[in-house]
Design a protein that fits this description.
The protein is of the alpha/beta class. It has one domain: 3-Layer(aba) Sandwich (Rossmann fold). It has 9 helices and 7 strands. Helix 2 links the parallel strand 2 and strand 3. Helix 1 crosses helix 8 and helix 3 packs parallel to helix 4. The protein binds nicotinamide-adenine-dinucleotide. The site of nicotinamide-adenine-dinucleotide has 28 residues, from helix 1 and helix 4.
Length: 275
């Protein structure tokens, strides 16, 4: 703290939903990697608390990702703090879930999740891309999807559908904005022991059962996710766009491994090669 270069001298990334959970971890990792960080959240106290842990490399940005005007104000404030018309990057991480069986789910809950996760991701990333485009400034965008975007969780309402939507939106943005030098990618976390999933993993029995189902044998951490986000933001990922990187210890692809099977099936290949 206090030893970082001024934000006018560093590349700058905005992390939305950075007031807690995975977003706070991404913001800290970005600052450690030398980025100036706009810690954006609709909860002012949460944004300020995260900035206090990071120090001079971060500024709080209070905005609601569903509200275009508040996003523009945040971008103006960041431009003033950095002296640059456009940030170098944005991580569209803000997301919510509203649980309930689809048959009974209040329509307002469905709409709220679409508004934050899908429309909010669109509004934030487009606002940044517009500034990068008009400043002729190449940039990088990362959006947060989820294993729920390919494997729906029961009673998760609109959540999985929004994440599938974000995955396709990312691909479309990559196609449309690639010619302007803007890369757009997604990160799809699996079972992460942080943020919105903490109520699940505070139950020790559920925690142990779920950990045992992951091929790598453990839950993921916010730092696991942040490391991949930082890679996608970096110049090492200069030729990657339109991709979704799954950070899940292997669980999304392990469904067949969890099905019962006769022992005879496991030995067929051995018998054949022994002939
Ligand atoms: N935790 C997991 O297991 C997990 C797994 C897969 C994907 N994800 C995704 O990762 C992202 C971060 O999740 P998390 O677990 O850290 O959640 P979290 O609830 O801890 O953090 C979300 C943050 O977003 C902020 N936010 C919510 N609505 C906002 C709005 N309208 N405008 C601005 N900020 C808003 C909240 O204040 C909060 O600080 C989400 O997109 C989530 O869907 C999480």
């Amino acid at each position: 703290m206090g030893t970082s270069p001024p934000m006018t001298d560093t590349r700058v990334v905005i992390v939305t939903g950075a007031g807690g959970g995975i977003g706070a971890s991404i913001a800290s990792a970005a600052a450690q990697a030398g980025w100036g960080v706009g810690v954006l959240d609709h909860d002012p106290a949460a944004a300020h608390a995260v900035v206090a842990t990071i120090g001079d490399a971060a500024v709080p940005l209070v905005a609601d990702v569903t509200d275009e005007r508040s996003i523009e104000h945040a971008l103006d404030a960041l431009a003033e703090a950095t002296g640059r018309p456009a940030p170098d990057a944005i991580v569209a991480n803000a997301g919510i879930v509203r649980f309930g069986p689809l048959l009974d789910l209040p329509t307002a809950d469905f709409r709220a999740v679409v508004d934050v996760n899908l429309t909010g991701t669109f509004l934030c990333t487009r606002a940044v891309a517009r500034r990068q485009h008009s400043a002729q400034h190449p940039g990088s965008i990362v959006a947060m999807t989820s294993m729920n975007g390919v494997a729906p969780g029961p009673n998760a309402g609109a959540y999985g559908a929004t994440k599938a939507g974000v995955a396709l939106l990312v691909a479309q943005m990559a196609v449309e904005w690639g010619p302007f030098g803007i890369r757009v990618n997604a990160v799809a976390p699996g079972l992460i022991d942080a943020g919105m999933s903490q109520p699940i993993y505070s139950d020790p029995e559920i925690r142990a059962l779920r950990s045992a189902r992951v091929p790598l044998g453990r839950l993921g951490t916010a730092a696991d996710v942040a490391a991949v986000v930082l890679f996608l933001l970096s110049d090492e990922a200069a030729y990657i766009t339109g991709s979704e990187i799954v950070v899940d210890g292997g669980i999304t692809r392990s469904i067949i491994a969890t099905l019962p099977r006769p022992h005879s099936v496991d030995s067929i290949g051995v018998r054949d090669s022994a002939r």
